[in-house]
Amino acid sequence: MKKLLTLLSFIPILLWASNPPTTIDLNNEWQFSQTNKDEWHSATVPGSVQHDLIRLEILPNPYFGTNEDSVQWVEDENWDFKKSFQLTNEQLKYDGALLTFEGLDTHADVFLNGSKLFHSENMFVNHQTSVKHLLREGDNYLYVRFYSPIQHLMPTRLTNDFEYPAGNDARDEKMSVYSRKAPYHYGWDWGMRLVQMGIWRPVHLTLYNKSRIDDFFVQQESVSDEIAKLTNYIEVYSLANNATSAKIVVSYALPNQEKQTEEKTITLTKGVNKIAVPLEIANPQLWMPNGWGEPHLYNFTAQVVVNDEIIAEKSHKIGLRNIRVVAKPDEQGQSFYFEVNGKPLFAKGANYIPGEIMNTLQDDGYYERLFDNVVAANMNMIRVWGGGFYENKKFYDLADELGILVWQDFMFACTPHPHDDAFLENVAHEARYNIKRLRNHPSVAIWCGNNEVLESIKYWGYDKVYSKEIMDGFREGYDKTFRELLPGIVMELDPEKFYLHGSPDTANWGRIPSLSYGDAHYWGVWHGRQPFEVLDKNVPRFMSEFGFQSFPEMKTIRTFATEKDFDIESEVMKSHQKSAIGNEAIKEYMDMYYNTPSNFEDFVYVGLVMQGQGMKHGLEAHRRNRPFCMGTLYWQLNDSWPVVSWSGVDYYNNWKAMHYKARDVFAPIALNVYQEDGVLDIYTMSDNLTDENNLTLKVSLIDFKGELIKQIEQKVDAKANASVKVHSIAVADFATTTQQENSVVNVQLIDSNGEAIATSKYFFYWPNKLNLPKTKIDKSISYQDGKYTVTLESKYLAKDVFVEIPIQGAMYNDNFFDLLPGEKKVITITSPELTEEGKTAITVKHLRETY
Ligand code: NHV
User: Fold this and answer.
1) How far is CA 130 from the centre of its chain?
2) Is the pLDDT of residue 11 over 60?
3) Distance 352 CA to ligand 1 centre (A)
4) Is the link from the previous residue into 106 a cis peptide, with omega within 30 of 0?
């Protein structure tokens, strides 16, 4: 085979054939009506019936008040979509016409010009049909009938002798398990219910001659600094009746680099042709995760060339990297960590849920804001959790460009599912489609079968409700789906990637010794009502979920509630709290750690502060405990509507205290102060790949009223890619009991230029045991279009200072911080909605003002 390959040292000048392929967008001018009603309205494609009905004001704003209840009827009806489009005689001359629906949600029949094209039963796949023989000059007609996901599959439920558990599905009839459709549409413990129907991804018609490339996979067999060994797998679909000689040309280059090519002469036969083109790149520029260097991306293109003319091509951006998941028995149990380009990576990140209940609202701008938040918080990993959908291309493109590793679940969460042949065949199709769609993205680091399905079968008490036969069925279904079917398909289509049957693997938060084995979801805090301090002790090998709720800030609450609803027991607030234990748990924790305010607005603020501090406590414990623990992905990054939830960023893109805390703990070099057995241990936690030597650690004990009680200086190094205890102080020698209630420990890491490269503030107690002083914060503001600068100063310590502005999504350089006595702190707030003239009001709050 090697002999057929020639490495050309010049760029071959190839031109497209005179009539290159053309793609016609079919997203415009759709109309929709409830089936048999004949009341046609304009439809947005991509979109959903519910989204259009809301846009047309036939349905009310579902986020407001208790409106969620009044939009539910739509899910039980069938809905029709139709459109016409015109083709010219010229366009009909192409050899082939491929109609593509990138995604239909979910159960639908599709018709074109008097023929039924296909039936859709899976939201997560595309549909491609050769329609050349059906197209006409002039008007062509498309029609899609969507069936209610509830009623369409009701007979399957009615013939089953039990109801599936599906505890997050908000309706009594648990229909979510029967459809391959985004589980969160049916409700979740942070989500409203909106079981949508619609054309949720674009529609287009591709006209082409002779052949097309259906798939192009650049498989990375091995990658090191010296050499990348790749195989390009290309699938060409040929229309020609006779065998045709053709060349497959693969070219690749970094941006601004000269193109290199590799080619192979082949004979195309009618139908599917599979071609492999091996390729080696010496001294490749590797794709590095965020914080470790550049995520270099090569442009790869595969072309089909006949008679020196290009007749088909396909391109991908390829990052060359070697990602291994090291899940091996060791002295402590079983490791679980990601090794990237030969080095162990401490994973820092969060669990991502779909960013909109009406998921088609997630446009490019949405993904850009999302990834801005991810990068700003110093994350290097994000988990696409199994209760949503396989994300849009833009998501993975940004992850590729920014060096963010993606933990990709298959879409199953928190309940067993059917496992009959037809169901599994549908799942297999979905897995094949999505693995092929996503396997070229360097960011995709792991395939994971599901979220908590096995955990639910083992530990959620199903055995008390279901017979032994049913329980056996759940286990059998689990093994068939997640231990046989899916790993088999991953092995076949993306063999270099690690497959985990489900998350967590075997660890369970109720069984502490199990935390030493693989990844864990620690829900003892929140669901188990344990104090945050347990996070110091119950450290897993890899934390793939842990979390704590808060209300979103008042400006977000005001979008769905009015003054009269400002009570955690009001109907409106309860309809925006989907966790069964929600508001009660928040209050219970607040009583444990804070002086719980009676006023609603203060309660919301203190809750935000508490979530930030509690989660910081956990994140620090995880990072401090590397290499035993090698990553932490908290629950949850974002929201899908305005709601009380575990998120660090609310629906309107306002950072909660937690997101700032995550950013600080995840800094490339962070400091951590941890008290154990009467000793304050100070750690450097570094993700840099080189040591930082000759730093000065400065530890200051400062009274809340401003007196510097003590100061210690010590030369330390911040060891590369490690967490290391660099200094210890006996508390008894350092601060008296009274001082512990009245002072803060300010710890700084100072480089040779005298600059603080890391700081951490340590309080000996939670706020209800501190003597926080009353103090007034002075503020001065300078107003500019797009940016306000706020300078803050307080005579005494002001804890958890919150700077508020009633502009959704305004960005701050910092917020929810502690202001040391006499310290001047400059806060910048940016938003295109801020004007110099408008002088939008800014309010400042701190903890001592709430009690
Ligand atoms: O409840 C918060 C999140 C969920 O939104 C999401 O499904 O995978 N959460 C909690 C748990 N897992 C997840 C753990 N579940 C339980 C804990 C305790 C008892 C029952 C269930 C995420």
Assistant:
1) 35
2) no
3) 14
4) yes
